[in-house]
């Protein structure tokens, strides 16, 4: 539940983790997201942020930091009634030599995870239903506008990604 002090949104405990694919151009949505989060921190809208890189794809059958993070994000999505697809996608890769089949997770170009007191309050991008997408930048803009979309787990109005 969101706390209000004289009508001001309590964002002091909000932290943002920005995950970006390694070996991708830094211009465009990736750079814009990082700059927006940096500005939110400078203005005090969020308490802190960190930028992380991750691979473009990871084998889900092999335990790793990325697979653990994805499972945490997926649990949040299941609890809140949203999906992380199509931003996170799954594919099966067949090894013609060994005959093995590996499930691979493809990560989004940019992903942000907003936390309050260590608890996830948003993973972006995400999707409500088949057409209601909440993008990284639309969500960050809602924080920038000091709009309370975090109360009771609500996400900002959907925008088509």
Would you give an account of this structure?
With 161 residues, this protein is of the alpha+beta class. The chain is 25% helix and 33% strand. Strands 4-3-8-9 form a four-stranded mixed sheet, with helices on both faces. A three-stranded antiparallel sheet has the order 5-7-6, with no helix packed on it. Helix 1 runs parallel beside helix 3 (136-144).
Summarize this, please?
It is built from three helices and eleven strands, in the order E-E-E-H-E-E-H-E-E-E-E-E-E-H. By secondary structure, it is of the alpha+beta class. Helix 1 (29-43) runs parallel beside helix 3.
Number of DSSP E strands: 11
The strands making up the biggest β-sheet line up spatially as: 4-3-8-9
Number of helices: 3
Low-confidence stretches: 1-9, 157-161
Helix and strand topology:
Elements: E1 4-5, E2 8-9, E3 14-21, H1 29-43, E4 48-54, E5 57-59, H2 65-80, E6 89-94, E7 101-106, E8 110-116, E9 119-124, E10 126-128, E11 132-134, H3 136-144
Parallel strand pairs: 3-4
Antiparallel strand pairs: 1-2, 3-8, 5-7, 6-7, 8-9, 10-11
Helix pairs in contact: 1-3
Notable characteristics:
alpha+beta, 11 strands, about 25% helix, about 160 residues, globular, disordered N terminus
């Amino acid at each position: 539940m969101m706390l209000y002090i004289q009508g001001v949104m309590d964002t002091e405990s909000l932290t943002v983790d920005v995950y970006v694919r390694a070996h991708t151009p830094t211009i465009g949505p990736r750079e814009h997201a990082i700059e927006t989060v940096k500005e939110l921190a400078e203005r005090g809208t969020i308490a802190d942020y960190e930028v992380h890189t991750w691979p473009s794809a990871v084998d889900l059958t092999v335990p790793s930091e990325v697979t653990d993070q994805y499972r945490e994000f997926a649990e949040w999505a299941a609890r809140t009634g949203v999906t992380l697809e199509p931003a996170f996608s799954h594919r099966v890769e067949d090894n013609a030599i060994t005959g093995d089949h590996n499930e691979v997770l493809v990560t989004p170009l940019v992903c942000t995870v907003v936390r309050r007191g260590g608890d996830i309050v948003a993973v972006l991008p995400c999707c409500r239903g088949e057409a209601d997408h909440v993008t990284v930048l639309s969500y960050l803009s809602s924080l920038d506008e000091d709009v309370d979309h975090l109360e009771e787990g609500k996400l900002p109005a959907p925008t088509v990604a």
